[in-house]
Amino acid sequence: MRNITALFFILFTILFHAQSLEKISKEVNDEGIALYRSEMASWYGTDIFKANYEKMENVGGYFSYIDESVPKCIFFSKENKVLATIAFPTNYNPNNAKIDLKERDFTPLEAEYFMIRQNTLTRIKTDTIFKSYQNTSFNIVPIIKKNVKKVYVLTGPSVDNLIIFGNDYLITFNNKNEIKNVEKLHNSMIAHNIHDEKVGKTISGIHSHVIENWQTITPTDICTLMLYQKFTNWEHYITISKKYTSIWNSNNNLTVMKTEDYKKMVENISKNKSEKVDFKEKIE
């Protein structure tokens, strides 16, 4: 009887951990996709706006958000009036985007996005946690979902042939749009060349995570991988930490497992192929 009870306990523990990792995978992946959808609207929205609007000196800024499943990019004036609204289909085909250049006030939801964006800008200028690097700029991505308000700050390259992970931050807000917390998602910045003449074509990449609160792949990592996938053609990407190893593939499937299990799996594969395995990662 004791053996049966112990067996049931072991099976329950295995099932619990499997469900927990699956839940983590889904939450991180969904958040990464939300960031990607916002950034795609901003990428294409900027090009469309510049091609259709002449008085650029009037522009105060922009942000993107999802309005009932429709990605929208909003450009506003220095007087905080909406100058343009660009709505995209799900495939983000610029030819099918709808642009409205009628000046108007923010909707109540847009006003919330605007406030957390502006508060983020102010914080970036005054908080030394934010680090700037040559040939890069910050991309501000506000997210409001189920009354939870947050802003991700990503670092994007301003030169070609470069993909950047890290030097990213998460800012959370209260219901009054006041900043509650600012945290780093990576310990530093990791730069990959998209095309490297010495290395040749690459099909994947890897970096490590050391921050205790961010042991899995981050939503910003997933967003970056999705944005640049058409340039890198990477089949998969791995992040590894003391606790978790995350494996993302180009079909946008994410698997999170314990790092000890991942290393055992790779070692078993290596033994079968009689190859040596080296766990040296690109340390952040």
Report the structural category: alpha+beta
Helix content: 25-40%
How does the major sheet shape up? 4 strands, antiparallel
The string of secondary-structure elements, in order, is: HEEEEHEEEEEEEHEEEH
Strand order in the sheet with the most strands: 1-2-3-4
| Shape, per Cα inertia axes | globular
* Beta-strand fraction estimate: 25-35%
**Total DSSP E strands:** 14
The rounded distance between the terminal residues' Cα atoms is 50 Å
Q: What is the number of helices? A: 4
Q: Spans with pLDDT under 50 lasting ≥5 residues? A: 1-16, 275-283
Q: Residue-averaged pLDDT, rounded?
A: 89
Rg from Cα: 21 Å
Overview of this protein structure:
The chain has a domain at 29-81 and 88-104. The strands form four sheets. It has a four-stranded antiparallel sheet. A four-stranded antiparallel sheet has the order 5-6-8-9, with helices on both faces. It has a four-stranded mixed sheet with strand order 11-12-13-14. The radius of gyration is 21 Å and the shape is globular. 35% of the residues lie in helices and 31% in strands. The protein has 284 residues and is α+β, with helices and mostly antiparallel strands.
Layout of strands and helices, then pairs:
Elements (H helix, E strand, L loop, with lengths): L1 H51 L6 E9 L2 E8 L4 E6 L10 E3 L7 H19 L9 E10 L2 E10 L4 E5 L2 E5 L5 E6 L4 E5 L10 E5 L10 H14 L3 E5 L3 E6 L4 E5 H15 L11
Parallel strand pairs: 11-12
Antiparallel strand pairs: 1-2, 2-3, 3-4, 5-6, 6-8, 7-10, 8-9, 12-13, 13-14
Helix pairs in contact: 1-3
